[in-house]
């Protein structure tokens, strides 16, 4: 016999559960996490991002394309340059919490400390 739940829990419907897993799947790449974090702090070109995340420009462009298609980053063209930025407050909060969790899970943040990856936009 199963225990009766103390209260009714409303679980996410399939549409929202899939949207969450799609976002997590997209963020399940260290380079994309680094790129998004950098873009949440300001606008950058592919070359500048490649330097920041220590990856080749071609790889960075491919990652940015995926992030752009998912609607997580926006572009602005200036002459022959394309600049990328992230403005989604939901993604900022999600990454901030995920990085804070990672700092605590790895022991690099002290108990009760916010950790170094707090958004300072």
TrEMBL record:
Q: Which InterPro entries did the record assign?
A: ArsR-like_HTH (IPR011991), HTH_ArsR_DNA-bd_dom (IPR001845), Metal_resp_trans_reg (IPR051011), WH-like_DNA-bd_sf (IPR036388), WH_DNA-bd_sf (IPR036390)
Extract the Pfam families matched here: HTH_5 (PF01022)
Q: Which UniProt keywords apply?
A: DNA-binding, Transcription, Transcription regulation
| Ranges for region Disordered | 100-121
**What sequence ranges are listed for the domain HTH arsR-type?**
12-106
Record keyword Acetylation present:
no
**Keyword DNA-binding annotated:** yes
Q: Which domain of life is it from?
A: Bacteria
NCBIfam families documented for this protein: HTH_metalloreg (NF033788)
Would you tell me the protein name for this molecule? ArsR/SmtB family transcription factor
Origin organism of this chain?
A: Ornithinimicrobium kibberense
Lineage, broadest ranks:
Bacteria, Bacillati, Actinomycetota, Actinomycetes, Micrococcales
